[in-house]
Write a structure and sequence with these properties.
Blueprint (H helix, E strand, L loop, with lengths): L28 E4 L2 H4 L13 E3 L2 E6 L5 E6 L5 E6 L7 E13 L4 H12 L2 E3 L7 E3 L13 E8 L9 E14 L2 E12 L10 E10 L4 E2 L1
C-alpha cells in the first residue's frame, strides 16, 4: 500500500521484532464490533463496510516523551492505532480506528504552506473536503495558533523482515468533535516519505476520519 509513496528504499537500520498489540501484527486479522461506529448514527462521517481487517502493514512512532504509537494498516488504508509506554506494545491503551477520507498531492510550496496554516488553527474548517468543522484535540486548552506536530513513522510490511519498508516524515494535527452518541476524530497530515538515493518521493496531504475504540470492541 505504501508503494505509491516510496521507491523501494534500501536501508541499513538494524533488525527489529515487530510489536504485537493485543495480538495484532502484520498478517493477522482484526475482528471489529460494528456497534463502535453504528452507535454514532447518522451524525458521523465515519463508515466502514466490514467488521474484519486484514493487516498488511504496520507502523511505529517513538515520541519524545517515551511513549510509542503503533499503527496497523489494511491494503485500502484503514488504520487501527494504539498508544503504549513500551516499544513492544505490551502495555497498550488509547485505541482508535481511522478510515481514509481524502488525499491530495500539493503542486508546490505555496499549497504546502496553506495546508500547514490550516493545521495551525484551533478549528479545522472541513468544508473544502465535504466535512464539518473540527475543534483541535491536541492543544485543546488554547485558542492560539499552534504549529502542527512532526514525527517519523517507520513502516513494516513483512513480519519476518529484518529491515523496515521505509520511513515517512509527518506533519499532523488531531481533531475531535463530540456527537450525541460519542466522539468522532479527524487526523489531518502531510506525509513526506524518506527519499532513497536516486529516487523521488511524492508529498501528500491526507485526511482520515476516526472513532475511539474500547478494548472489547476489537479482537485478533
Amino acid at each position: 500500500m505504501f508503494k505509491k509513496l516510496f521507491g523501494k528504499a534500501e536501508t541499513a537500520e538494524p533488525a527489529a521484532r515487530l510489536a504485537q498489540v493485543r495480538n495484532i501484527t502484520v498478517g493477522r486479522t482484526v475482528s471489529l464490533d460494528p456497534l463502535a461506529w453504528r452507535r454514532l448514527g447518522s451524525e458521523t462521517a465515519f463508515t466502514l463496510d466490514r467488521d474484519a481487517l486484514e493487516i498488511t502493514a504496520q507502523g511505529s512512532v517513538a515520541l519524545d516523551g517515551g511513549q510509542h504509537v503503533h499503527r496497523f494498516y489494511t491494503d485500502d488504508h484503514v488504520m487501527l492505532q494504539a498508544m503504549s509506554d513500551d516499544a513492544s506494545g505490551a502495555e497498550a491503551y488509547d485505541f482508535s480506528l481511522f478510515i481514509p477520507w481524502s488525499s491530495a498531492y500539493p503542486p508546490g510550496e505555496r499549497e504546502r504552506r496553506i495546508w500547514r496554516d490550516r493545521l495551525s488553527e484551533p478549528v479545522f474548517d472541513g468544508a473544502a473536503e465535504d466535512l464539518p468543522s473540527y475543534p483541535r484535540f491536541w492543544f485543546a486548552e488554547s485558542d492560539a495558533r499552534q504549529p502542527p506536530v512532526t514525527l517519523w513513522e517507520t513502516i513494516w510490511d513483512d513480519r519476518a523482515a529484518t529491515v523496515p519498508y521505509g520511513r515517512i516524515f509527518q506533519t499532523c494535527m488531531l481533531y475531535a468533535r463530540d456527537l450525541s452518541g460519542g466522539r468522532e476524530l479527524m487526523l489531518a497530515l502531510e506525509m513526506e516519505p524518506e527519499k532513497a538515493p536516486g529516487k523521488t518521493a511524492d508529498i501528500s496531504h491526507e485526511i482520515m476520519v476516526g472513532i475511539p475504540l474500547e478494548v472489547g470492541e476489537f479482537t485478533a
